[in-house]
């Protein structure tokens, strides 16, 4: 009987110890679970806060990029307008004044047989200077804004540009056009002309090219400009000057795609693919 009481006491002791351990484990699990919930809640709140900040910064960057694109477009429009104005003033004012001066010098030269040799020599010198000034003003006006771009269209302006570059450099330029409509919007004409002008300038000045080809083709998909040269080439991933960035911005502004293919020693090819312009025969 005494042994039975001892066994019962031992069982009660074991049950008490087990209950104590169980209570301790329960409290530990509750604390761990609560801590985990607290950490999870804090982590979730932190992640949500970071996500809100990231989204706000993304929208801010997108808005800033849009504002920069709008500013770039306004600057391009202002630049073209200023070029057109200066070109017209040079042609109408200074050009005509120099032309009138050449006429007067010509009339004096017609009667120079009765003048002293020194005076005749001075007249010839004045005529030579006036002719050079007249030609320089004409060239500057055409480079700023060729009147034929407005009067005769894109094809004539590109052919003139190719002849001028060939005449003033060591590079021979070939211009090829296919089905280019005459009623292109001014934005398209200016974009294609400026891209061609910049590409030929870079090829003649920086790549030591001997030959360059300009192709403009119209199709149902839009208008494609292709300018290639056989110069020394470059790495487009490492060389990206202001001129190339300006070309890309002009194309993107019209919703087009701009690309450069070049390797050192293998020339360069600049391609611009523009969507069909609205409200012109180019979209038919």
Describe what this molecule looks like in 3D.
With 284 residues, the chain is of the alpha+beta class. It has 2 domains: 1-145; 148-284, Histidine kinase-like ATPase, C-terminal domain (Heat Shock Protein 90, 2-Layer Sandwich). It has 6 helices and 5 strands. It has helices spanning 2-110, 117-144, 147-151, 154-168, 186-206, 242-253; strands spanning 172-178, 211-219, 222-229, 257-262, 268-274. Strands 1-2-3-5-4 form a 5-stranded mixed beta sheet, covered by helices on one side. Helix 4 runs parallel beside helix 5. The chain is rod-shaped. It starts with a helix and ends in a 10-residue tail after the last strand. The mean pLDDT is 80. The chain crosses the membrane at residues 28-48. It catalyses: ATP + protein L-histidine = ADP + protein N-phospho-L-histidine. It comes from Candidatus Acidiferrum panamense.
Features:
284 residues, alpha+beta, Heat Shock Protein 90, 2 domains, 5-stranded mixed beta sheet, 6 helices, rod-shaped
SSE pattern, N- to C-terminal: HHHHEHEEHEE
Helix content: 55-70%
Please mark out the parts with pLDDT under 50 across 5 or more consecutive residues, or reply none. none
Instruction: Calculate the mean pLDDT score and round it.
Output: 80
The neighbouring-strand order within the major sheet is 1-2-3-5-4
Q: CA-to-CA gap between the ends?
A: 114 Å
Which strand-content bin applies to the residues?
5-15%
Number of helices: 6
Q: Write down the domain tally.
A: 2
Helix vs. strand class:
alpha+beta
How would you sum up the global shape?
rod-shaped
Number of strands: 5
Major beta-sheet overview: 5 strands, mixed
Radius of gyration: 39 Å
